[in-house]
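To the team - magnesium ion complex, inputs and output below.
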Amino acid sequence: MVDKNSPVIEVKDLCKTYFMPGGMSQSVLKNVSFAVNHGEFVAIMGHSGSGKSTLMNILGCLDRSTSGVYKLVGQAVSDKTDSDLAHIRGQKIGFVFQNFNLLMKRTIADNVSLPLIYQGVSEKERYKRAVQMLERVQLTGYEDRLPTQISGGMQQRVAIARALINNPEIIFADEPTGNLDSKTSDEIMHLFTDLNKQGITIVLVTHEDDVADYAKRMIKIDDGCKVYDGPRADYGKDKK
Ligand SMILES: Nc1ncnc2c1ncn2[C@@H]1O[C@H](COP(=O)(O)OP(=O)(O)OP(=O)(O)O)[C@@H](O)[C@H]1O
Ligand SMILES: [Mg+2]
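Output:
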């Protein structure tokens, strides 16, 4: 059984430096530490270039830190090989990106069930699971359409269905509403709120205050440093 009070994510003194050709380097994350417990809903905010996507890519095991410790569901990620990391990603993590990242020439059902191909799941079973996931995001009946035949908000819901197909512990979303209008953003945020109520931990990056308001907790990054970590509702209270 999952211990609801145990961290799903623990980072300690996380640093990331990008090394460029010609000997240049840029320190982008500086001693960032925090933990996220099972079932939390966290918004990561900060100015453009502050290091949010860099942090998300490390948390999502798409990249590695330069130093520091990252434990995902109690396991130290830094000790793992790339193929271990790919396995962890497949088992524990769902991703949602700003630009949806759908395959435009494949049907919606194919897009949703894509992660199952790597697990050797049969075509019939993949379709069945895609239908179930599309129901969770209120897109029943759209299985056989192409992404070009649905709206942007619907495309993002397809991406969320794809993120759900492996039954992940956690969903990372980097600016999931960045390409959507405010009404559609609200619909997507309601969907994330429902998924969070079902027990999925959600960590999302956003620039928008309205979007961050759906989260219970906020972490603010400024120039690679964590400068706020606490209830979203309390952020900025001392300045008012
Ligand atoms: N692969 C990379 N190689 C070198 N520098 C990088 C790389 N990725 C990001 N950076 C640099 O790291 C800094 C932080 O980038 P990052 O994408 O994490 O910011 P961000 O907070 O997500 O910004 P935005 O809000 O614009 O998405 C930027 O100065 C960026 O140029
Ligand atoms: Mg970014």
